[in-house]
Structure formats: C-alpha cells, structure tokens
C-alpha cells in the first residue's frame, strides 16, 4: 500500500507506518540549558526542528545584554518519521521524547503556528502579577487559556498551563491577561 503524507491535510496512517512521514510535530526533552546546541546538532543531522525563542535583557555584573532564550525550557519540537526517532535519540543532549498517555506527545502544525504568532505579537510586552494567581490570556493566539503564575521576574512571567502539560514562559502586557473569575 502506498501512502503519501501531505502536511496540509489529514491522512489516516496504516498500522505499519515505519517509512511514512509523520505530519505532526513531536516534542523532545533536552539536557538543561542545552536547547540551542541540541537544536544545532539536530539541524546538522537533517532533522526539521522548531525551537521557539524570545528576546530578553540579562544583567551581568558589568553589563546588560539582549539574549535569546527558549520559550519552553529543555523542549524542542521535531518533525520526524517513526524510523528517524531512534536517530534523534542518538544526538548528544537529547534525553527523550515527551509522552502523553503512553504515546509520543503530538503537537499539530496549527499549534506550532500559534506559538510563532504568540511570540511575534508579544515581543517586548510585560506584565505584573503575583505568584499563585490564576490568569487567563485575554487576547492574542492563546486567548482563553488559563494558567497559574508560578514565578514572576523583571522580564518574564512563568505560567503553569495544564492544557499543555508543561510550563510556559511568556512576556505579555498587563492588558493581555485577567485574573480567573471564581
């Protein structure tokens, strides 16, 4: 049976999908603070990746510098066939694939696109809230998503968003979120 994969349409996968490209993105977990290096190694190995980064200012004792940091600490999105998964795990710095309900966690293309839009729309925006508060993102591509504030820094707000099963680091302006109504 011959099947072609089209990233723009839904396809059904046969039981034996060893050589059929997966039209969805998978998530890999990396060693701490190694996301950029691991991403480079994966690209060199010919793997399609997406490492969402945002720009922030970091303070050192002698200077301030704009740096790009990962939106999701220790996570990189990869688009690989089932056959390529083993090769991804051989890349230095890759710890494992992220699983959900016993299967590799799949992120749809529209979710990848939403992350890209979110980063573009929130570039340079800031917010002030307190740890423990439940907030709802009220505008933008992640509108309607709730999260608990687990850390507030000068430049960023860290939300635990249960729908994604991971921590989301986001910089948004005060007007883009509201506290959850009880």
What does this protein structure show overall?
With 182 residues, the chain is α+β, with helices and mostly antiparallel strands. The chain folds into two domains: 15-107, Alpha-Beta Plaits, CATH 3.30.70; 125-182, SH3 type barrels, CATH 2.30.30.30. 16% of the residues lie in helices and 34% in strands. β11 (146-152) and β12 (157-161) form a beta hairpin. It is globular.
Which CATH class of the largest domain applies here? Answer: Alpha Beta
Alpha carbon gap, first and last residue = 54 Å
CATH architecture of the largest domain: 2-Layer Sandwich
Number of helices: 3
Helical content band: 10-25%
Major sheet size, sense and barrel closure: 5 strands, antiparallel
**Overall structural domain count:** 2
- The low-confidence parts are 1-15
Report the structural category.
alpha+beta
- What's the mean pLDDT score? 75
Q: Round the Cα radius of gyration to an integer and report it.
A: 18 Å
Content of β-strand:
25-35%
Q: What is the N-to-C succession of helices and strands?
A: EHEEEEHEEEEHEEEEE
Shape: globular
What structural keywords apply?
Alpha-Beta Plaits; alpha+beta; 5-stranded antiparallel beta sheet; 182 residues; globular; 3 helices; SH3 type barrels; single chain; disordered N terminus
SSE blueprint and pairings:
Elements (H helix, E strand, L loop, with lengths): L24 E6 L4 H10 L3 E3 L2 E7 L4 E7 L4 E5 L5 H5 L4 E4 L1 E2 L2 E2 L1 E2 L1 H14 L11 E4 L8 E7 L4 E5 L4 E5 L6 E3 L3
Antiparallel strand pairs: 1-5, 1-6, 1-9, 2-5, 3-4, 7-8, 10-11, 10-14, 11-12, 12-13
